[in-house]
Amino acid sequence: MIIPGFLVSIATFPGVITHEVAHMLFCKWRKIAVLDVCFFRFGNPAGYVVHEQTDDFMTSFLISIGPFIVNSLLCIIICFPAYLPVRFFGVEDPLSYFLLWLGLSIGMHAFPSNQDASNLYKQAKIAVRTGNPLALVSFPLVLLIYIANISSIVWADLAYGIALGIGLPALLF
Amino acid sequence: MRHCVCEECGQSVPMNKSFSVEGRNLCGECADASFAGIPNNNIDTTICFKCGADAGDQDLPLMASLPVCGVCEEFFRNRPFPLWVKAASFALAVIVVFALVWNSRFILAYTELRQMETAIADADLKKVESLITSVANRIPEKLVFKTMMNYWHGIALLRDDRCQEALSCFKMCKNSPDLPPKEIDSLIKNAALGVAFNDGNYDEFLRLSLDMAKASPRDAFALGSVASAYACKYAKEDNEEYRQKSLEFLEKANALNPGPEFDEFKMRVHHRLFTHEIVTANEFWKKFPNGWYPEKERQP
Question: What is the ipTM of this complex?
């Protein structure tokens, strides 16, 4: 089923906000100036962070991948308390369903955007000349990001969120 | 602040209000009137692009190719998260912690269910009973655990020869979709047998035993139960026919190779037939901890 992206963004707005917060968080940690930021808006893109460029590849890498780390971790942490009551015991309570919506929304927006991938690719091309191993790893990663974003048409982002929020606890319990 | 002269009208304008069109510096009006190309804003590197602070003739440091004053640079480098983002993050943390605490009963119940599996494998009935009771109390909204609690409680009671209480427990499990009806029926019959035995109602004991043996003719304990009931009748009424029937059923049960547990059962039936004494299993083992043998009884 194809649903317009802006509707998906509205339904999963906590994920959009967390994605941008993650970008900004890594900018702050790596002392990169944030020139402009929009955590959520009704438009495309639904959120953005404009930051200064840096020559340090590790910093670029972390800023681009930041949402993947932060959103994935939060998805696991938020869905965890809801997994046992809903999936294992079949107890339906609003708090658990709220947590699942929140966790999956955040997990869905874990993939870095195409813009993030493009930034990473540009920086990796420069960094790879100095033999930076992280830059080498970044090339397949960029490819994966593009594939993941294309696959979001067939709900790959939701599948990723479900795999993290529900699949992972299912392996444990 | 720097100024530049419009190359079209000769007017002096602030540099950051002027435009570059095809390499020529023009004022706003001339840039608008020009059809030569796309006008680009000229940047005055002495004016902060964020707050407009004027550094006189001194060039400001560039950030993303834009001039910024010290205060704005500090702001951009340490841009604070908006208050609502901080509040939302805090609320999120509170919700997750609250959910963990609120749902901790499920985590504990899950752990107890896992421990219960081990206890069942170890045949530790007391532990199974205590664990399932705890699970049922933690998750009262799921009836399945209450049913399982009654089931295991009934089994433990049956083992302790508290048949009347066991019967009540099993009756509560009847018609539950979570347990096989055949098993529950069998347990109810077993408990009813025990009740009849404990009440000294040996006619009822015999009737129920025969019913059970009819339903499960390959079950050594069902056949043994008939033998036990006939032994009770014999002990009370001293009718030789009952003794013969009891031995006959005992033989039939024995032919099914039921295992060492049945040998103990057989011993009790023989004791009953020999002594005309009717005692419960617990009383029997208290009295004869090393078992009972007719030869010993015959000794002076």
Answer: 0.89
